From TrEMBL:
A Pfam family reported for this protein in Swiss-Prot or TrEMBL: Ras
Places the protein is found: Cell membrane
Gene name linked to the record: LOC115968841
Protein name: Ras-related protein Rab7
Record-stated family: Belongs to the small GTPase superfamily. Rab family.
Amino acid sequence: MPSRRRTLLKVIILGDSGVGKTSLMNQYVNRKFSNQYKATIGADFLTKEVQFEDRLFTLQIWDTAGQERFQSLGVAFYRGADCCVLVYDVNSMKSFDNLNNWREEFLIQASPSDPENFPFVVLGNKVDVDGGNSRVVSEKKARAWCASKGNIPYFETSAKEGINVEEAFQCIAKNALKSGEEEEIYLPDTIDVASSSQQRSTGCEC
């Protein structure tokens, strides 16, 4: 039997603390939302398998801490990324204003081979809050910023309601795929007994 082949795509989610990075990741991977998330310490990641054109890809999504005291951990986590997701809260102008800082920080830390064309995706999260009445960042303003940075794809999302989350991550996966820095993973059809228990423990129920 031929080996099955998967490609690992590494995605980094950046943005201020409290904008909903963890919630977005969990809504996409596990289809769950919780109000009980604690602030991410350092970084954490989840994986989800996605299929494009009869090929199987493993999306490895890194959720990073928004607090400044953890930003020094960035280099190790950012390196090798295939796409960077910038998240802000549409109800917080400060979180939107900080998108530029996160973008610059990523480019410095990750040192992508082609920074001008590295794929970013911007998510304006929490559009559900107060029925949209507490919103302070307009869609027009956000789209103008994305256009000024090389036409970055933009989605308005609600991790709580699941609005646009699937669509946004499909775009993220496609952009990660285009970046071309793929890492092939070869999975044999037979798995030795010693490693099978370890594989089960690290597997992701999607």
